[in-house]
Every structure is written in structure tokens, then in C-alpha cells.
Amino acid sequence: MKILIICHEFPPIGGGAGNAAMYLARNFALKHEVAVLTSRFKNLKNGIQGVDMIYLPVLRKHIDRASPLELLSFTLSGIFYALARFKRNKYDVCLAIHGIPSGWLALFIWKVFKIPYIVSLRGGDVPGFLPESYDNLHRAVKFLTLKYWKNAQRLITNSQGLRELAKITAMIMNKNIEVIPNGIDCEFFRNDFQARDKNVTKMLFTGRITKQKGLEAFIKTLKQTRGEIKGSFSFQIIGEGPLKVSLQNLSRELFQGNTVSFGNWVEKNKLLREYQSADIFILPSYYEGMSNSLLEAMACGCMVIATDIAGNNELVRDGKNGFLFKPGDNKRLKEILISVLNNNPDVIQGMGRESRIIAEGYNWSNVSKRYEEDLALSCNRRD
User: Fold this and answer.
1) What is the CA 335 to chain-centroid distance, rounded?
2) Residue 118 and residue 149 in contact, taking contact as beta carbons nearer than 8 Å
3) Under a CB-based contact definition with an 8 Å cutoff, are residues 236 and 274 in contact?
């Protein structure tokens, strides 16, 4: 097959969508001709052997996020590129990763060049996900959503919970939703318990620092537990986002020294070392699809404390590889923190080993095969 992957972000820029695009491209390229259409950002590039990387000029200003206007610029740039370079049989099939904006471009390519496409929905591209952040956008582009969903050969979500939300929109056009979970590179992301500080229990969060992630409430609850925890602990937040400065200020007000610290967006090898040195991964999000960061941390043997929401509760087995609490249930979160941080380090490490076992079931090689099957079924449908 000649496969075109469309994704507005690609490592080292962006988050989970770009990560999925990279691993899928790498696995597809073992047997197929693959091209990736993505955004140009400064001089940052990450080529893959055997993959044709196409970097489009866009208006993007930040490494970790894009505004609606910047997303639109990707679509328009892609349209101009396709008109100049594409022909009817240039690709057999297209995989659009993150419907907004990749689905828009895939729809155009289908209409003009009759290249069939499937869409991998990731979270924010599903109406109803993060309503306080995306509702206005979804209302504005509803006509496009209905168009690119209707014309897609398949619609895929990365978790059961996201599928249930997507079904609300899909029912309008009688479309089915398939679930193919996120994947993880278990060969690269691996545990190294010797990298941990036995005298300090390290908690870690990695990802976009936004309201969605629930970090402000977590930091305040952590402060409330301080007097009831016997040993030493630290909490490190790695990433970028609009709330970073305000959370840094809050942490300085509530904690002395480096109890809560912040790190910048880091490249993959450094991120691996941060995961390996952490005992517990923290994910107090209000909404998730299926978090790449969570899977990476689990593959590195981290126990997990996370909100009991779709995506999280498909990976975290309460009491086995971590603990879950309802968003906003600070009383339960406080109980978990006191219990875990006062626990024997061997118990935390044991739960981390369970995380690794669970993560191994989500290896990218297995996930890629499921996408490959769907692409193969779709590539000849040009009616």
C-alpha cells in the first residue's frame, strides 16, 4: 500500500497525536510506502528511515499547542500542497490522525483526488470533549465535522470512553465507531529501578500544563497532606502550557525548597530517565482520550495515581498498579496520597511492576497491525 498519514504535529512538536503518527509511520514503513504530511516548526525535524516526511509551512508559534487559526493554516497549506503535487493515484489510502485539522484536509483530498481515508479521533476533536475549551470551536466547525465523519471509511477512537462520546455525533449519520487503543514502545520505555532515589518518593507528571490536567487542585491537596506524611517526597512537573507560570507561583507559595519543581519540554532520551527515576506517575485530568504519557510511565514501571475517567480507568487497575479517584474528590485523593507516601517502597515498586505488565499489552507493533488491517480494507473504496 501507498499510505499517506496526515497529522498537524509530529515529534518533537505536539503531544499524543504526533507520537501516534511517528510510531504508526515507523511500523507501516516496514512493509509499505509511507508519507507523512505535517507542520514545519522552526528547524525541528525528526525523520524516519523509509518515510517521506513533508513539512508544511504553518503559523504555529508554540511547540506544545496550536490555536484554531494555526490549525486552519495547516489545512490551507495542505490544500495548496496537494493541488500542486498530488494526482489521483499518488496514494492508496490516507490516515488522518486528529480530526481537527487532519480530517478537514483528508476530506478535501478525498473530494478532489478520490483517495479514501480513515480518521483516528484523539479527544479534543470529538464534540463534547473538554466542553469549556472546545465547545465554541465545535459549534463553529460542526458542518465540517459532519462532512469529514460521514465521508470517512472508518472512524477510530483510542479508548472505549471516547468511543461512547463520539457515538453521540456518529449516530446522526449512522456511522460506527471502532476502538484501537494508543500504543507504547516497550523496548524504549523500560524500567530501571536502580535509577530511583531510595530516600525520596518521587512523583511525576509529564504533558501539557493546562486546566484539563487538574494540576492546580492536585498541588493544593498535596499541601494539605504534608503534615501527615512521614517520609520525604517530591513532585516534578515536566512540560509546557498556558498555566505553567501560575502553577509555579502557587507552588512557591505553598511549598518550601524543591518539593514541587518544574522542568521544560525535554527530548525523548531525557524523558526516559525522568520516568525511570520516578516512583509514581500522577495524572489528575478531568478528561483524557488515552494518555501517551500514562502508557510511557507505566512501561517504565511507575505506580499510578489518576482520576477515574475514561482512558485512565482502562489502564489503571485500582489497587493493583495504582489508585483512582473521582475528579474533584479531594478527600479521596488525600487518603490515597497519605496511604501511598507512608507505604513501604517495595509496595510502590510492586505496583510499578504490574504497570509494566499491563503496558506490554499495548505495544505499538500490535496497535499498528490493527490500523494496517483497516487501511487495507479501505484503500480500494473509491466510490
Assistant:
1) 28
2) no
3) yes
Go through the chain and tell me how many residues it has.
Answer: 383
Low-confidence ranges of the chain (pLDDT < 50): none
- The distance from CA 93 to its chain's CA centroid, rounded to whole angstroms, is 24
Q: Cα–Cα distances in Å, from 83 out to 37, 87, 146, 178, 308?
A: 14, 8, 24, 31, 46
Q: How far, in Å, are 9, 116, 160, 165, 380 from residue 175 at the CA level?
A: 27, 16, 16, 13, 19
Rounded Cα–Cα distance for residues 340 and 41 (Å):
41
What pLDDT is attached to residue 343? 83
Helix (H) or strand (E) holding 118: strand 117-121
First to last CA, the chain: 18
- 10 Å Cβ neighbour count for 30? 10
Torsion of CA 326, 327, 329, 330, to 10 degrees: 130
pLDDT in tens, 244-273: 999 999 999 999 878 999 999 888 889 999
Give the helix/strand (H/E) hosting 78: helix 68-85
pLDDT value for 14: 83
**Cis amide leading into 131 (omega within 30):** no
So what's the pLDDT on residue 205?
Answer: 98
**H or E element at residue 281:** strand 280-283
Nearest in space to 116 (alpha carbons), one of 85, 144, 145, 148: 148
Supply angle C-alpha 118, 120, 126, rounded to 5: 115
pLDDT at 382: 54
Alpha-carbon span 306 to 294, nearest angstrom: 9
What pLDDT was estimated at residue 381? 61
The pLDDT, as a whole number, for residue 380 is 67
Q: Calculate the alpha carbon distances from 93 to 35, 74, 90, 373 in Å.
A: 11, 20, 9, 12
Q: CB–CB of 73/59 below 8 Å?
A: yes
Rounded CA gap, 381 and 376, in Å? 10
Whether 150 contacts 111, CB under 8 Å: no
